[in-house]
């Protein structure tokens, strides 16, 4: 009887996690930082779609390299992200980095910033990302600090980089102002020819670009009262993205007095291509360049 009591006692101790007075070993609980969780997510899905702000819609020579050098101190100051990037790249932590290393680090920073959206919800994070260019999908779910990923929704999504005009933007035409979404190929609008003269032009092409729920537009207000809202990358007549403008800059002959980045929930942006060599048209009275032109 004593033998059975002894065996039962040992089994009880094992059940309690104790064997002969020693605590049973358990695996330590691993918790990942937010940047590390983003890397886990990006590694879990193929062909993640994103828009690189250094190349879309207008890539300028040396722009990415210059931004890498300018933003490096800010990137390095974010210890969690910087550590995750170094680990991902296999780079050692050191006092100085070469310009080439700074460029690699900057590219990883862009991926973590633009490829996946994450917001904290209680003791976990909600994420959204897009996969596949063109006709792809939008993926939502949650990820815990332990790295456990759960997908809650996958739905078809047309994935592209919107660089067009907000709906309701009024385009100058010989027949008056027309909302951009109502324009069709063959209609007539005002444009400027290569000599700078205002001339009528035929609409060669129009486009409607679906946008994600998280999309934002830039709304620029000029001192003379003109206001226009477009995607951040839509080019002005000077070829400069509207999102680059700051208060005090000059746009179409007037001073910029306000620049706002606003949520946009209309579902799509629009653009048109007028005939002629410039691709210019007036949007809410401000001369802009079409995103559809090849010039």
General description of the model:
The chain is of the alpha+beta class. The protein contains five helices and 18 strands. It has helices spanning 2-15, 34-44, 63-77, 79-89, 99-114; strands spanning 18-19, 22-23, 48-49, 117-121, 124-131, 134-143, 149-159, 170-173, 176-179, 188-192, 198-210, 216-222, 227-230, 250-251, 254-263, 268-274, 280-283, 286-289. Strands 3, 4, 5, 6 and 7 form a five-stranded antiparallel β-sheet that branches. β8 and β9 (176-179) form a beta hairpin. α2 (34-44) packs across α4. The chain is globular and about 75 Å long. It starts with a helix and ends in a 6-residue tail after the last strand. Residues 1-22 have low confidence and may be disordered.
Radius of gyration in whole Å, from Cα?
27 Å
Question: Quick one: how many beta strands?
Answer: 18
- Average pLDDT figure: 86
**Which shape, going by the Cα principal axes?**
globular
- Cα-to-Cα separation, first versus last residue: 96 Å
Largest sheet: 5 strands, antiparallel
Low-confidence blocks of residues: 1-22
Q: Helical stretch count?
A: 5
Summing up helix and strand content along with how strands pair, one would put the structural category as: alpha+beta
Amount of helix: 10-25%
Topology pattern, helix = H, strand = E:
HEEHEHHHEEEEEEEEEEEEEEE
Strand content: 35-45%
């Amino acid at each position: 009887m004593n033998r059975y009591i002894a065996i039962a006692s040992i089994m009880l101790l094992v059940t309690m996690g104790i064997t002969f007075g020693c605590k049973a070993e358990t695996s330590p609980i691993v918790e990942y930082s937010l940047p590390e969780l983003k890397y886990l997510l990006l590694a879990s899905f193929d062909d993640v779609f994103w828009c690189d702000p250094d190349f879309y819609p207008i890539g300028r020579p040396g722009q990415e390299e210059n931004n890498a050098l300018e933003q490096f101190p800010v990137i390095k100051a974010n210890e969690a992200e910087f550590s995750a990037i170094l680990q991902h790249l296999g780079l050692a932590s050191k006092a100085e980095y070469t310009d080439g290393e700074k460029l690699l680090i900057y590219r990883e920073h862009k991926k973590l910033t633009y490829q996946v959206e994450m917001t904290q919800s209680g003791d976990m994070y909600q994420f959204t990302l897009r996969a596949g260019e063109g006709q792809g999908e939008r993926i939502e779910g949650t990820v815990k600090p332990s790295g456990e990923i759960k997908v809650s929704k996958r739905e078809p999504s047309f994935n592209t980089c919107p660089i067009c005009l907000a709906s309701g933007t009024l385009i100058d035409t010989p027949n008056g102002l027309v909302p951009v979404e109502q324009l069709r190929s063959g209609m007539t609008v005002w444009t400027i020819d290569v000599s700078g003269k205002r001339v009528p032009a035929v609409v060669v092409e129009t486009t409607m670009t679906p946008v994600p729920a998280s999309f934002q537009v830039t709304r620029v207000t000029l001192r003379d009262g003109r206001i226009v809202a477009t995607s951040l990358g839509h080019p002005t007549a000077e070829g400069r993205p509207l999102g680059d403008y700051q208060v005090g800059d000059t746009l179409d002959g007037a001073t910029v007095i306000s620049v706002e980045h606003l949520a946009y929930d209309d579902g799509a942006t629009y653009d048109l291509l007028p005939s002629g060599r410039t691709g210019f048209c007036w949007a809410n009275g401000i001369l802009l360049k079409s995103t559809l032109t090849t010039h």
